[in-house]
Amino acid sequence: MPKPLTGRTALITGATGGIGQAIAHRLAADGATLVLAHHNDHQAAQHLVDRLAQYGPTPLAVHADLRDQGDIERLCSAATEHSGSINIMVSNAGAYPRTPWPDLTSDRWHESLSLNLTSHYLLSRALTPAMADQRWGRILTTGSVLAAAGRHDLAAYISAKAGLEGLTRALARELGPAGITANCIAPGSIRVPAEDDVVPDPEAMTIRQLARQCIQRRGHPDDIAAAVAFLATDDAGFITGQTLRVDGGWILG
Predict the structure, then answer these.
(1) pLDDT tens track for 38-73
(2) Residue 233: CB partners within 8 Å, gap ≥ 6?
(3) 9-246 maps to which CATH number?
(4) Which sequence spans correspond to the domains of the chain?
(5) Active site residue 96
(6) Active-site residue among 55, 96, 121, 157?
């Protein structure tokens, strides 16, 4: 039986992070050819490429600064040369800079929006013309439930993620006639190894988080990967302009 993404090519940004790696494994297992974008994480990217070889064609790993239009053009050119036209864009890269409101300077504000919103716009602009030519495409971006919940010290990050939901709706309107869907996956509290570096007491944080959720476990990267995999398929061809919260029932409204 053919796998659901056989014949499709996916570009995944932020591929070496916990969620990015899970997405890469799932899409490769589902038959997609992969291009993996990372930012100065060459060793982790090579390890990921080696692990993904079990599924089929060897993925291409490309270093790129997604805030830079020239780097994005180089990334897309390398992806096309290696794998053909990109059908599926998984724009997963981002950053989570915590900055108290009194310290949120104009420079920090613009840096967060560049990382968490403008990069998605630049990548979409670069990839959608080829999708339109094929009359088929999937634009999938990683948002955050914090766009709905709010949280202190994250004003710029939350503003960018809220903007990403708006961009998703706009792209759905713009590109739907060309056979392209656009959806945003908004993770809740996902347990990744990087958490241990930024949370003073992960166990206490987990207890607080479970009190907010309907489902009494932490989210895992595979939960996000499953949502991405579904929205990338033909079965999701009538779903567009949506934000899918994968959060264990944290945000119900």
Answers:
(1) 998 999 999 999 999 999 899 999 999 999 999 999
(2) 4, 5, 30
(3) 3.40.50.720
(4) 9-246
(5) no
(6) 157
